[in-house]
Each structure stands twice: as C-alpha cells, then as structure tokens.
Amino acid sequence: MLSGLSWPEVAALLAAGVLLDLLLGEARRFHPLVGFGNLASAIERRLNKGNGRLPRGALGWALAVLPLTVLAGWLCGVAGALAHAAMLYFCIGLRSLRDHNLPIAAALRGGDLPAARELTGRIVSRDTFDANEADLAKASAESLLENGNDAVFGTLFWFAVAGGPGAVLFRLANTLDAMWGYRNARFLYFGRVAARVDDALNYVPARLTALSYVLLAPGTPGKRLAWRCWREQAPAWSSPNAGPVMASGAGALGLALGGAARYDGEIEQRPPLGQGAPATAGDIERAWRLVWRTTLLWLVLSALVAAAIVMAPEVWHA
Questions:
Q1: How far is residue 304's CA from residue 20's CA, in Å, rounded to a whole number?
Q2: The total number of structural domains that make up the chain
Q3: Does any domain span residue 42?
Q4: What is the pLDDT of residue 317?
Q5: Which domain holds residue 290?
Q6: Cα end-to-end span (Å), the chain
Q7: For residues 166 and 194, what is the distance between their CA atoms, to the nearest angstrom?
C-alpha cells in the first residue's frame, strides 16, 4: 500500500472514518475544507489575471494542494493511524449529504415549497427561487447521486490507495474543481488544470460508484436498466465522471432525471438520465438510501478482503 498501512488496517480505518463522520458530522468551527476554500480564493484572486492564465492555474493548483498533501503525509508519519483516521473524517461527507438533503424531502412532504427552495439552493448552483416540487426533488436526487461519489466514494477509494494523504489530495483537488472548474470567461483557462486533475483522480472511483449503483438496483430488471442507462446516456454528458454516476444511479432508482434546469436565468437542456417517473420527495430518501447502501457495500468488501488476508496471508503475499 502507498500509505504503508496493511489492508486490514485500511479496512479498519475506513470503517472508523465513516463512523466518526456519522457520529460527529461536519466540524462546526474551523473545518479544514472551509479554511482551504478561503486559501484557494486568495490564490485565485492573486494569480487569475493578465496573460498566461493556464500556467498560472497550474501554479495555483500546486500552491493550494501540494503543500497540504505533503503536510498530511508528514503528520501520518508522526502520528500513525490516529492521523489517518482524523484525515478521513475531515475529508468524507456522508452525514453532510444526509443532513443537507433529507430536510428538503421533509419540507416537500409538508408542502413548504419556500423552505424546500431555500434548502435546495444551498446545495446546487441552479436557480430554485420558483422551482416546483418535481424540480427540487430532481435537483436533490441528482446532487445525492453525484456527490455520493465526490464526497464519499472517491475519498474512500483514495484513502484505500494512499491513506490519509490520498484522501486529502482527492478532496482538495475535488474542492478546487468545484471552485475553479467552470467554463466561463473567468475560469476557462485558469481552472482547466483543476478540472482535468479532478477528472483523472475521479475516473476509477466514478466507475466503481456507477458499478455499485448497478449492483444495488432492485432485481434483475433494475440492474439491467441501470447498466443500460450508464452505457447509453453517460457519453452524452460533458463530465466524463458525473455522467456514469448519475445515469446508473437514476436507472437504479427508476427515475427520469436530467433534462431542463435553469442556471442564472437561462434554461439549459441537459441530456436525460435514467428512465421512469419524475422525482418526488420520497425519491430523495431513496437516493440517500442508495448512497448509504453503497457505503456499506464498500466497507463490507474491504472487510472481506482484510479477513481473507488475515486467514491466508501466504496467498496474498506469494
């Protein structure tokens, strides 16, 4: 392992990080990712001007991500498993997904559209000020499916590969993509490196997430639909990683997602995702359960591999 941890240690720390996240949730004060966002904004204001924005963007990415990743590696070398577990806790966002999305479902069930619009506007970039129930449920379900990969499974994957520093590298790169990876006049060149690095780091985790959604779809017909949506719909999406994740997830849930959404007052016609009925409040809860069950699947699989290594070490080290 790149982290120097054995696989049984990795499996135990994965479970510990998820448990800490569920018990403690996001840090209320001085969350490292919030501090990183402030640092990234300062770097962007300093470098994103004048000519040469592409190399300036590369420099900005390196200044924001690499020193903190090196620091994470040093801390893990000093504090060992404790530092690894703490870094995974600060990087993973499973409970955050639940805490931000299930209140939207509750507001929709109670008929409180203004509250549902405000809550949804906190987690998506699309306009929500006059969205109806179907629009809000669709936005929340899509956010859960996509961020299940970005906030949970990508972090778990890179922790398994490189321990705490791997989780830190992934989450910082993913955060920079969310801040800089826009195709507009301000970020088209400056944010290109951030977008491409995130695409590369997310490539394998996104496909493992999509495969997990397929495996957890209900029944053989549901699995076939999720697989077909992934293969047929994902190529139409501009993001090479969001497409597989959201298409397979929408198919697994039997929902019709994607399509029209309004950004900055303009209607954007996005490719379709999945197949079935429009989303409702109950489908937000179903999307959360799919993300939760996928988390459990990954933890169980890592534990099974660890048990196999412990019981037959000569086979794995041959």
A1: 21
A2: 1
A3: yes
A4: 57
A5: 7-259+267-316
A6: 16
A7: 17
**Residue 192 is assigned to a structural domain of this protein:** yes
Q: What own/partner pairs with CB < 8 Å and gap ≥ 24 does 200-205 have?
A: 201/154, 201/158, 201/169, 201/170, 201/173, 201/174, 202/149, 202/150, 202/154, 202/174, 202/241, 203/240, 203/241, 204/157, 205/149, 205/153, 205/154, 205/156, 205/157, 205/158
CB environment 205-225: b (16+ within 10 A), e (fewer): bbbbbbbbbbebbeeeebbeb
* Average pLDDT per block of 10 residues along the chain, 318 residues long: 82 95 82 87 91 89 96 93 93 95 96 95 91 95 96 96 96 94 88 95 97 97 97 94 97 95 89 95 97 97 89 61
CA distances from 133 to 8, 139, 143, 221, 290 (A): 45, 10, 15, 28, 21
* Residue 2, domain member (yes or no): no
Six token digits for residue 36: 């990183």
In a domain, 127, yes or no: yes
User: 118-125, long-range: CB within 8 Å, 24+ apart, which pairs?
Assistant: 125/263
Residue corresponding to tokens 């985790």:
205
Residues in the chain: 318
CA distance 237 to 257: 13
Contacts (Cβ under 8 Å, ≥6 apart) of 79: none
**Can you tell me the distance from the alpha carbon of 65 to that of 165, in angstroms, rounded to the nearest whole number?**
11
| Contact (CB, 8 A) for 167 and 88 | yes
Scan for tokens 């949506």, then name that residue. Answer: 229
Helix (H, G, I), strand (E, B) or coil at 262: strand
